[in-house]
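QA checklist item 7 of 12: single-chain prediction sanity check.
[x] sequence parsed
[x] length recorded as 180
[x] structure emitted
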Amino acid sequence: MKKLNGRTIVFAAVLVAMNLVLSRVLAINIGPTIRITISATPIYLASLWFGSLVGGICGGLGDLLGCLIQGYAPNPLILVSSVLSGVLPAVFKKYVLRDRINTWKIAVMLIVNGIIGSLGFTVLGLHVYYATPWSVLYATRTLQTIALTIANTILVSLLYQSALTPYVNQIFASQKTREV
């Protein structure tokens, strides 16, 4: 985990802002329970780059600020799902993936996150909030989760395995040498 300091907070704030733009501006809403968006990509990257604490904070802030922007009350169960989107990738990276991360490992990580988050906590939150029947929620959210897992796997893989990750690591490595 990177040290929580001003530079990390600023970088994380940019990722939260990207999450907000992707989830609230560049999203396709289909009814009250389906939103097609790649907004989780910055949260996954925050988790992989900065660890579970920063990733979880980014996921939670993205959800809370998004609710504030759109003028509705946050759903605590969906908030848990958002926080987990920022926590699980770092946990996977540290305890499961240990060695070099590749596209297949990212896919497994996002599949587990989709099952626990989107098909677990989010479905439960939507069922409680809207009283939508379970069968309807699972039928629609399963298709959405599969499609978004594929899209996010491609995006996270491309971005994490690009020159961006060494650049982020370099920025924070140079900061450590200045602090000493």
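[x] summary fact logged: The longest helix spans residues 103-130.
[ ] second reviewer sign-off
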